[in-house]
Design a protein that fits this description.
Blueprint (H helix, E strand, L loop, with lengths): L1 H8 L16 E5 L24 H8 L9 E5 L10 H7 L7 E6 L4 H18 L2 E7 L5 H7 L4 H14 L1 H4 L2 E8 L7 H10 L4 E5 L12 H4 L7 H14 L3 H15 L16 E4 L4 E3 L9 E2 L5 H5 L2 H13 L14 H27 L2
Parallel strand pairs: 1-2, 1-7, 2-3, 3-4, 4-5, 5-6
Antiparallel strand pairs: 7-8, 8-9
Helix pairs in contact: 2-3, 4-6, 10-11
């Protein structure tokens, strides 16, 4: 209930339109396009990963004044573990003056390499008083995960690392979770996965597979997205179930928001907040700067210009406003941020209707109706 009150207190009267010139608080950092999986919902593994930033260039990127207020940074890829000498990059990240939280996403295929890397990051984060969170991708059990990731034996590699981190969390991070991307390939197996994770004490979160410009998956959208298949009903059922299943109010709201979006395909409305509307940025492995990863084109390169000159350029701000106006309601990526009061009360009305309906059902049962 405390979190529900906090959700209300963080709610905004008016929707964010992207016009404000604010330095990013959150930075998404796809540090390489190199990848060792062939995921059905992603084309990163087909993309060129040449000419990525040297450590000298990366140091200059991190020292750009645009990032002086970044509190949260997420490292992803590609696959982070394919950067053999990751340590100097981590050193530069941890020099960000306002950084409070660091997150890394991995498929964990390179088990021992990954564990060594996150131990190193954990140690450095402790020295810098930065919280460190690990997220490992798991899209199903056994053959389901192997098929989604396009790699035979993927499940066995991944679950071994998950169990190691679960059993010795403090050695590797402050916190961890397993992330599942819902697609046509696994939507009918999610209850099995969810049950497995509950039995084994694995903290799992679910996100909806969507079109994403950064990972260049628009041409394969119809092959993986449940919105293009008969699996839509299964997806709605699952996220409705997760709303009731979760005890954490933030998670309840997230899963309700996905369910609500799926249920209203003729009049889509994003209820989830999104910090990328005005306080988030994406910086790729070549120094290309973007707003959000889902819809933004490259705004310019830090190899050629200062971050603020790119990020706050008037035409780019207009471009961000256009994204917010015309694309955000079509997006159900699990980005988070402050929500509107309207979204909050949509959630509350849903809760109250459910409780009222249950009360009526109980009364009817007692009356034998």
């Amino acid at each position: 209930m405390v979190k529900l009150i906090k959700l209300l207190l963080r709610s905004k009267v008016f929707e964010i339109n992207g016009h404000r010139k604010k330095k990013p608080k959150v930075l998404q950092l796809p540090i390489t396009y190199n990848c060792n999986s062939k995921c059905v919902m992603c084309n990163v593994w087909k993309m060129d990963h040449s000419n990525e930033a040297t450590i000298e260039e990366f140091r200059a990127f991190m020292q750009d004044p645009l990032f002086s207020e970044v509190t949260d940074l997420g490292i992803n890829g590609g696959e982070v573990t394919l950067i053999e000498d990751l340590e100097p990059y981590v050193n530069e990240i941890l020099k960000l003056p306002s950084l409070k939280r660091l997150n890394i996403i991995s498929n964990a295929f390179r088990g021992d390499v990954f564990l060594e890397q996150v131990k190193m990051i954990r140690s450095k984060c402790l020295e810098s008083k930065v919280e460190f969170h690990i997220s490992i991708s798991l899209d199903g059990l056994r053959d389901v995960h192997d098929e989604v990731r396009g790699v035979r034996g993927a499940f066995e590699k991944t679950i071994k690392v998950i169990n190691e981190i679960k059993d010795h969390t403090d050695e590797y991070c402050n916190s961890y979770n397993v992330g599942c991307t819902v697609s046509q390939y696994n939507v009918n197996n999610l209850i099995e996965l969810d049950t497995y994770c509950k039995i084994n004490g694995i903290n799992i979160k679910y996100r909806f597979g969507i079109e994403n410009k950064r990972i260049d998956n628009s041409e394969i959208l119809e092959k993986f997205s449940v919105t293009y298949s008969d699996a839509m009903f299964s997806a709605k059922e699952f996220f409705h179930y997760k709303y009731f299943d979760e005890s954490d109010w933030y998670e309840k709201f997230k899963y309700f928001s996905i369910f609500y979006w799926l249920k209203n395909q003729d009049n889509k409305k994003r209820l989830l907040g999104c910090i990328w509307k005005d306080e988030g940025a994406t910086l790729d492995s070549r120094g290309e700067l973007y707003y959000c990863a889902v819809k933004s084109k490259s705004l310019g390169s830090l190899r050629e210009s200062k971050g603020s000159d790119i990020f706050f350029e008037p035409d780019n701000i207009k471009y961000r406003m256009d994204i917010v106006k015309n694309n955000c309601d079509d997006c159900i990526h699990d980005y988070s941020g402050d929500i509107t009061l309207k979204a909050f009360f949509t959630f509350i009305i849903f809760i109250l209707r459910g409780r009222f309906s249950m009360s009526v059902f109980k009364v009817m049962g007692k009356l034998g109706i």
